[in-house]
Amino acid sequence: MNRKAVRLTLPAMALILAGSGVMTLLSADNPDASQPFDNTSLKYPNVSPSHRHMRLLLDNAFEYVNPAHGILDPVSGYPAEGWNQEPENGLFLRSFTQLTAIGAWVELLANVAAGYADNPYLSKDAALSGLSRAVTALLDDQRNPTLAAKGLLVNFLGLEDGVRTGPLLETVERRQFIETFGDDEGTAIWSAIVAKGWLQEEDSGRKGSIRRGDRYGSAYFDGELAPYSEEPLRSAIMRILDQRVVTIIFGDNANLAAALARSVGALLRPEIRDDPRAARSREQIERFIEAQGEGYSHLYDPATATFAFGWDPVADRFVGWSDGRGNWVNGQMNYFINEFRGPWTFAVLRYGLPTASIRNAGFKIKPYRREDGKDTYAPAAWDGSAFQLLGLSLFMEELANPGWRTSLETLVDIELDFSTKHGLPGFLSESYSGKGTEYTGLIGIADIAVTDKPLITHSPSLYTLGVAYMIAPERTERFLQEHWPRVSGLFTPHGPWEGWNTSTNRVIPFQTTVHTLSLILGGINSAQENMRRYLDAHNLDGPLEALYEPGDRVDFLAEANRILPWTSDRSRIEFSREAGICRFSSHLTGVGGMAFVVPDDETISLSNGRLLIRYRSEQALTDVSVSFKRAEDDPLPLPAFPVEIVARFKQTQDDRIEIVLPATPALRGIEEISLVFGSIGKETPVDISVMAFDFIPFPAAFDAPR
Question: How far is Cα 77 from Cα 494, in angstroms, rounded to an integer?
Answer without folding.
Answer: 19
